[in-house]
Amino acid sequence: MASKRDWLDTGLEILARDGARALTIERLCGELDLTKGSFYHHFKGITGYQKDLLGHFETEHTDRFITAVEGSGEPAPARLRRLLDIVLDVEDHNAGLESAVRAWALVDADVRAVQERVDRTRIDYLSALWRDLGGPESDVTPMGRLLYLILIGGQQVIPPISAPELRDIYQRALRLAPPEEADTE
Predict the structure, then answer these.
(1) Which end is more exposed in the chain, N or C (fewer Cβ atoms within 10 Å of the end residue's Cβ)?
(2) Is 151 inside any structural domain?
(3) DSSP states of the chain
(4) Is residue 8 in some structural domain?
(5) Residues in domain HTH tetR-type (predicted)?
(6) How many domains are there within the chain?
(7) What is the pLDDT of residue 182?
(8) Cα dist. 11→2, 40, 68, 77 in Å?
């Protein structure tokens, strides 16, 4: 029997590959080679599933990254590099997921609300990292947005910009960061 997480991970894969219209109970059951009864054991219909799927997306593709970076205890420059490594590694493996969620958000108000919250959380976190780098306060929000827009823009062009190319673009953008102060202790 598949776990709830198996159902949700499969849903993210289907969403990334084929879009929101492909998220049907029949398709999920077919992908997992399970019955509808197994689906209903975990979810209250497709609407309940979609709600849980969006929560799973937010947890796995935003909250988990922030927790991993903050748990490192590293200084801001290292946390920012670590975040970029995590995000770009996931982007390589989940190509299309972010674009699929954004496309879905254009036609579904509930998805839009989740996407807005995810975007706000990510920009706020990047802004906080930029603040920790020690630049002028007036740069904090614009730089948080810039760093985020690099990723989103890179995903939206056709073909999407590869993770190695995005890494290079980020390295160039990070040249705008204030110089690290020498450790005087």
Answers:
(1) C
(2) yes
(3) ---HHHHHHHHHHHHHHH-GGG--HHHHHHHHT--HHHHHHH-SHHHHHHHHHHHHHHIIIIIHHHHHHHTT---HHHHHHHHHHHHHHHHHHSTTHHHHHHHHHTT-HHHHHHHHHHHHHHHHHHHHHHHHHT--HHHHHHHHHHHHHHHHHHHHSSSPPPHHHHHHHHHHHGGGSPPPPPP--
(4) no
(5) 8-45
(6) 1
(7) 45
(8) 13, 15, 24, 35
Question: pLDDT above 90 covers what percent of the chain?
Answer: 81
Q: What is the pLDDT of residues 69-123, one digit of tens each?
A: 999 999 999 999 999 999 988 876 677 899 999 999 999 999 999 999 999 999 9
Residue at 24 is within a domain: no
Contact 53, 108 (CB under 8 A): no
**What is the phi/psi pair of residue 96, to 5°?**
100, -20
The span from the CA of 37 to the CA of 34, in Å, is 8
Q: For 162-185, how does the pLDDT look when each residue is reduced to its tens digit (9 = 90+)? A: 889 999 999 999 999 888 654 444
**Residue-number span of the structural domain to which 145 is assigned:** 54-176
pLDDT value at 5 more than 50? yes
